[in-house]
Every structure is written in C-alpha cells, then in structure tokens.
Amino acid sequence: MPVTPSQRNESAGNGRAESARFAGAGAARLPGLLLLGVESAVYVKSRNHIPVATRRAAWKRAKGCCEECGKNLIERSIVNVPAKKISYFVHLWNGHNCWSCHSPGRILAVMEYHNCGRSYLDPGDADDRKLGEAIRKRFPFFRPDYSYTMEESYYANHCESCGAMQGDHFLTLWLCDRGRGDAPDLVEPIPEVVEWEPACSYATRRFLSFQIHHRNGDPSDAALDNLEILCPPCHQGKHAKVSV
Known about the structure:
Elements (H helix, E strand, L loop, with lengths): L4 H25 L22 H11 L11 E8 L2 E14 L6 E9 L4 E2 L7 H13 L3 E6 L4 E7 L6 E2 L1 H10 L8 E12 L2 E8 L3 E4 L12 E4 L1 H12 L1
Antiparallel strand pairs: 1-9, 2-3, 2-8, 3-4, 5-6, 6-7, 10-11
C-alpha cells in the first residue's frame, strides 16, 4: 500500500522522538559521552578547556613528578664545553684608493678562527696590543692612531704612500659596495698570538611526556582537586582499572 505524505511525516516525527529519548537515556547512563547521529547530543570539551592558571597550579603541586609513581618528569643534564683555541688571521685586500692622495694600496681586517671580525683593537689593552703589534710587524701600515670621529685610539689601516689614516667605517663601505668582503686577496695566519676560550658548563632540562588525569572521570570538571599529573603508563593504568 502506498505511503501518504501525512503518514511519512508522522513516521519521521516518531523517529525523532525516539532518538531524543535514546539520547537522554544514553546521556544519563554515560555522562560525558558524545553521541553521534542524534539531534540531541552531549558534547564535552577537550582538555584545552582547563584554564592555564589551573594547569600551572597542578604542575607546581606535582613538583615536576608523576603524582602516582613519583617518576621525575623533567630530564636534567649538564653540558660540559671544553676550552677552545682561538686563532687569528689577517684578510688582506688590494686596490683601495686613499681618500687623501688617491693612491691605490692595501687594507686588512683581523679575523678570528670562525671568520668573525675583530675591529677597533685598543692599544691600551694588553691582549689587543699584543695582537696589534704582531700584525704591525708584518704589515707596518696597520698601527695605532687617534680617530677624531671615534674620539679614541685604535689600530687602523693607513695609506702606504702618504700615511693618512683610513677609517674602518669607510673601508667597510668600500668592501660592501664592491662585494669583496668575503673574497680577500690574501689570508694569512698570525701564529704568534693564540688565545683560549675557557671551559664552561651549563645546565639543560627537557620536559618528558605527561598527561592530566581527571580523578572523578568527568573531563568537564576542571577543578584543581580533580586534576592529577601522571606519566603515560600511570595514566593508562588508571583508565584500565576504571574499565575493569
């Protein structure tokens, strides 16, 4: 027998009513369960709904340990860094024109072993003076002079023709404009001067995996007394006991 539109609507209404009753009964028996396929479903938020302040308070109470077995959830270690030898090199470029007499000449830069520049060697500092004088013996145009711009003395390049001081700032601009900063014409070590970075150590820490357990089994209850910081095995064991 064909089904009339009124009978179809009545059947659909009865189905929705049954679904609603099923959802209500299921929600009563299984609190916090998400029921799919029904219009009246119970939705529970994820653990992201736990306020940050509450999470921090729970972690502070646990003191970085599992509150069930006492396992340390923070892995600490000490990294020892041995002393490092610092060697110095001179990077030399040809073809720089003096700002005063316009004669072409050489300029140099002092570099460390990891290609970091050492600028403004202070002749008043014993270590800087030792390095500066070692370079000056090989390249006499590198010597101390007073800079009115910097208002201090430092080891600087000088014109080999007229002796005019060549400021580091303008030499840097010259190298950048010509793209020659990383392409010196000569690299020469300065073996007379060797320094050492002292050995040191520092502490590191790594947070191990942990989980937040709800004591009463209700994930929507974010009260501090209901939360427990657990390592994954203990958390799994808690839920295994509940299921049994």
